[in-house]
Specification:
Structural class: alpha/beta
Largest sheet: 8 strands, mixed
Oligomer: single chain
Distance between the termini: 46 Å
Length: 224
């Protein structure tokens, strides 16, 4: 069975606009079968999504995830169950694997978004690489594609959505035997994936810019 997955989405539990429920409903509307709401340094978005939208309500599997800001840059973690994430990269990789999680460098060559850059080659233990991020430049994505090839690792494509209109702008097709968290994670480990490249459309980009301005004004007024 081949399913579409977007495994890098932000909700209101970090710097995204929409609720986890809104994100899952959007995913269902556009034909995604798997999502991970990977908020910054927290699994809360995914946890809330699982609680708010029971599996039987929509045919969308939510994988607990987080985008952890380590001492080297941003790293995506996908798990069966959330765990307390350390912020030293080497410790994060070890603890994630102890908890049967996947560890994936996010937009590794997009330094504007705090990718880990050339350090991607120094770490042992990656399960895959985010080779295409719909919010990143083509040049940084091409470098990530090259790194995955050189390291012999599976490549994932994700939207890095911050508004629901961006969800699914890029996605990964995953070959699974069954639509469950364990099966999806194992398929990624085994490289049964096909990244589908894409960028945000004009409407989605406008909504994101609008949200970015609104969020910055709000943070300024609240003294953040």
């Amino acid at each position: 069975m081949r399913v579409k997955a977007d495994l890098h989405i932000h909700s209101l539990y970090s710097d995204g606009k929409n609720s986890p429920s809104e994100i899952v409903h959007r995913a269902a509307d556009i034909g995604l079968a798997v999502v991970s709401i990977s908020d910054h340094n927290t699994f809360e978005g995914s946890v809330r999504a699982i609680r708010q939208v029971p599996r039987g309500a929509l045919e969308v599997l939510v994988i607990p995830g987080a985008e952890v800001r380590t001492d080297r840059g941003d790293v995506l973690v996908y798990c069966e169950q959330p765990f307390e994430t350390p912020y030293r990269l080497e410790e994060l990789v070890d603890k994630a694997h102890e908890n049967n999680c996947l560890v994936v460098p996010a937009h590794p060559f997009d330094l504007f978004r705090l990718g880990i850059g050339e350090y991607v080659y120094s770490v042992r233990g990656w399960d895959a690489i985010e080779v295409w991020n719909a919010s990143s430049t083509k040049a940084s994505n091409r470098r990530a594609v090259q790194a995955a090839r050189e390291l012999g690792l599976p490549g994932l494509a994700n939207s890095d959505a911050h508004v629901v209109e961006q969800v699914g702008s890029a996605y990964t097709i995953i070959e699974v035997d069954d639509l469950g968290i364990q099966h999806v994670l194992e398929s990624i480990r085994r490289g049964r994936v096909q990244p589908v490249f894409g960028h945000h459309g004009v409407k989605a980009t406008f909504k994101w810019v609008e949200w970015s301005i609104e969020r910055r004004i709000r943070d300024l007024l609240e003294g953040r």
